[in-house]
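Continued from yesterday's entry.
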Amino acid sequence: MTSEGRSTPAAPAGRPWFMANELLAFVVELVALAALARWGFATGDSVAAQLVLGLGTPAVAIVLWGMFAAPRARFRPTLAWVLLVKAVVLGGGVYAVHAVGHPVAAAFFGVVVVVNTVLAETLRRRTPQRGAPAA
């Protein structure tokens, strides 16, 4: 609190490498969604199918992510379920990159996804959450 009784904004919790990995996680999620959209638009046999797959596949991924894997997810399943949703969405993004003809980029993206997810889940459990008492 300041002397006028107003609270000051809190600084981002954690160390710089934690915040950098969180930023990378967000970028990975966006790339996966873009890859799913690209795959959908490239896969459909007709314009209607391309629109349904190109818009619908990332929309389903967004709903799944928002319900189960996002930091402020509507439902808080166990870690195993969160990782399953992440595997489906992010793994689908890796598959989509491969399916549109970029196997080397898919392999690279797959490695980034796995390393980032392992680091993110490990670091999130070691970094105190905002508002949580320090142990």
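--- second protein ---
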Amino acid sequence: MSRSASSASSPSPAVPVGHGGGLTLSWPGGVVPEAAAGGAAMVTGVFDLLHVGHVRFLAAVRERGLPLLVGVEDDRRTRGWKGPARPFQPEEERAELLRALRPVDGTFLVHGDPSVTDWTAYTALLAPLAPGAMAWTAHDPYTEQKRRAAAGLGARAWEIAETPDRSTTRIVSGRMPG
């Protein structure tokens, strides 16, 4: 789970910012990580309250040997999916927390209308980053779409076992096992 020698570099016009299909991406703080040059494993999600399920998932992805870039859904998309009381933490802080984790080589923000969830939109968004793999947790409701996106990108498709009973929804509802 080691990072590359330099986990971030200054912004570079050589690394395109993805856009297409109604989604765009941006680099928090304008910092483009080295892993954005291509071949990284990609995951996307809300990551609202960081918990052990997130950490175990990200570690399992990174242990497969590719640098790891994490796409954080922006506040607007999160509110659209999770309701007006979410997110609990702003997008930039969620991205910063993830960047601080050993398995993560960099983060980006995903922007767009919350109704845009189609695999073709994510394929267009991520194509300039030439991912080596796309990863998600087992039982993800978008598994089939993520498989299609990976195929469309020529990337490996990695379904990672989830940590049972660990989710932000369970935390805030008080339904975490003791």
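The radius of gyration is 15 Å. The beta strands are 19-20, 23-26, 41-45, 68-73, 106-112, 133-137, 156-160. Will compare against the first tomorrow.
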